[in-house]
Amino acid sequence: MKTRLSRMYVIATCCFTALGLSGCNKFLDLDPLSSWKDETFYSSEAEVEMALSGIYSEMANDDMYGYKFNVMLESGTDEMYTNSSAANWAAARLGYTSSSDEVKNLWLHLYSCIQLVNQLEKHLNQEAFTPEKYNGYLAKARFMRAFCYFTLANWFGPVPLRLTPSSSQADNNVAPSPVLEVYQQVEKDFLFAATHLHHASSSEYVPGEPNKMAAHGLLARLYLRMGGFQPYLADNEADCYFENPQQYFEKAQEQCEIIIRDGWHGIVPFSADPQSYRNHFMNYLQNRYDLRESLFEISFGNLIALGLNVHGRIGNINGVEFVGTADIPRGFANVNVAVPVYNIYLLEDTRREWNIAGYRNNYSSANQRFTMSYIFDNPLHQEYGIGKYRRWEPTDLNALKAQGSIVDAAYTILNNVTGSATDPNYTSINFPILRYSDVLLMHAEAIIGGRFGTKNATAEAVNSLNTVRERAGLEPYAGSLNHDDFFKELVDERLRELCFEGLRKQDLVRWNLLEDKLVETNQAIKFQPMYVENNAFHQTYLEPGVTFDRAKHYLLPYPLQEVTINTKLDQRLHW
Questions:
Q1: How far apart are CA 361 and CA 347, in angstroms?
Q2: Among the listed residues 551, 523, 526, 573, the one whose alpha carbon sits nearest the alpha carbon of residue 94
Q3: Fewest Cβ atoms closer than 10 Å to its Cβ: which of 76, 154, 299, 337?
Q4: Residue ranges of the RagB/SusD domain (predicted)?
Q5: Of 389, 458, 379, which Cα lies nearest the Cα of 427?
Q6: Beta pairing class for 359-364 and 322-323
Q7: Intra-chain end-to-end CA distance of the chain, in Å
Q8: Whole-structure pTM over 0.90, yes or no?
């Protein structure tokens, strides 16, 4: 069952929309909504928890981590691409513009979250709480503000840095701050959060909320980004780096080692559980928090049956195909596993058959039967679905492998929680933001100084890599410790381990490898034995690599309505 975070999100949803549901009874003794004012609202634990829930909820919707941000805008790399040529999937093919809803709504939700944080920060009644409680509330809010500004700077570059609530039209006119200043504010907020948040092991910690080690981990992610390529920072691409980038890799290493030496977080090794990787993701599917491995995740619920617009679409939009009738764990497979992912795994890697589903269940209206097919070795199939968030699986996968297809085959529902098991469109599957394996891989990368560093891999870097490999059932890394060779291994290992977790595109940007990987992906597609030049799906897979424009696609355009409203925000070149 989801804990207080999900319940508080429901409370915020129903109270802010004035729904008279029994789930809100404990809050009905508050002042009427018409008398709530910013100046007096943040004065009780119930009010502040409700405000925080409103902050968190900005991330838990279709426009953000429901699918349009972390699936659609993340598509078009060596990780995944869409199989849809429809106009409403253009953003996944790099066909977005400044008028695209996906671009506009990403900006709006991030700034709405920031506005809510700024309101809480300004009006939180310090006299109503102990210093520890007061700072704890601020830490949760500032953690989310840092998360939002980090995302904004990564995807849009220079953005307006608003640290006080906007209250009038004039407040819209804010010039964009340089990316370095935005990242420095992110650093400040995350450092405050790391100081004042509860550890995930604390009895006072609420699973799903920000915690101390998550702040340290996201600081490491920030520093790696600050040490990497900064799109369009200068006219000369060789100058698109902050001064002395090595300092940021040293800071990233320090943050990772705080988590590693703390010793509480970790991953279950293969030697203790050969199904460790699968079982970790089963926690997301079955609404359990695995606090040891998952440092931070976006929490969803599914209350559509209760008439509340509270749901996610993880495992539905980016799941395994299963369509045709009502009351099935439906999956649309709107995005496909990219061919490089199929190519990159060793056969014995336990992540291979979890991250790639390799099967589908297709309904025929002619005979009203389902035919389950095994398609693992056909990576150009139009329904080559992502398996990481699978809602279902064949009950007898070995029989399916042997026969190739089975009519009306038995299946097992994995997202088998009340309200989600057979919902045709919505799920309650949480989305991972930071896992311990990511901390280990960031640690290894920080030690060698990223792509353009000069240091060879140390024993500590290799150990961090091997901890991730061991859980996948692989032998220890025996390759070269030379900087360039080891960096290439980390590029590949992050794809194997962290695919479909909303990280790949920004990894490729900070390494200045996005264009290279798009070229490699299109080559891999065309060299695949099943490639057919006049196949419409195959041409759709190629579209991001064909469309990519280095002068445009490392950052998103500013939303049209923002450059219209904000007189100090000029559209970036080429848009």
A1: 24
A2: 551
A3: 154
A4: 341-575
A5: 389
A6: parallel
A7: 46
A8: yes
Helix intervals (H) in 263-312: 276-285
Residue 37 identity: K
Q: Is 177 strand, coil or helix?
A: strand
By the 10 Å C-beta count (0-12 exposed, 13-18 middle, 19+ buried), 347 is classed as: exposed
Strands of the 359-364 sheet, one edge to the other = 322-323, 359-364, 369-374, 405-407
Span 318-329, pLDDT tens digits: 999 999 988 899
What pLDDT shows up at residue 18? 33
- Show the beta-strand stretches assigned E in 236-349: 294-298, 322-323, 335-337
pLDDT digits (tens, 9 = 90+) for 8-67: 444 444 444 333 333 333 333 444 444 556 677 898 999 999 999 999 999 999 999 999
- Closest to 80 measured CA to CA, from 454, 505, 427: 505
Overall size of the chain counted in residues: 575
Residues 355-366: pLDDT tens digits? 999 999 999 988
64: tokens are: 């953000």
Scan for tokens 């520890």, then name that residue.
Answer: 132
For range 476-480, the mean pLDDT: 97
Of the candidates 43, 54, 42, the residue with the CA atom closest to the CA atom of residue 10: 54
Sign of CA dihedral 179, 58, 427, 66: negative
> What CATH number matches the domain at 39-177+512-574, 1.10.600.10, 1.25.40.390, 3.40.50.150, 3.40.350.10?
1.25.40.390
How confident is the model at residue 37, as a pLDDT?
Answer: 66
What is the DSSP pairing of strand 405-407 with strand 369-374? antiparallel
Identify which of 355, 357, 412 has the alpha carbon closest to the alpha carbon of residue 383. 357
User: What's the CA gap between 380 and 395, in Å, rounded?
Assistant: 25
Work out whether strand 411-413 and strand 392-394 pair parallel, antiparallel, or are unpaired. Answer: antiparallel
Q: For the CA atoms of 170, 175, 181, 182, what is the dihedral angle to 10 degrees?
A: 70
Contact 40, 34 (CB under 8 A): no
CB-based contact 222:209 (threshold 8 Å): no
- Residue ranges per domain, the chain? 39-177+512-574, 315-426
The answer to whether residues 572 and 557 touch, using CB atoms and an 8 Å cutoff, is yes
Cβ neighbours for 272, distance < 8 A, ≥ 6 positions apart: none
Contact by Cβ (8 Å): 551, 573: yes
3-state SS, residue 311: coil
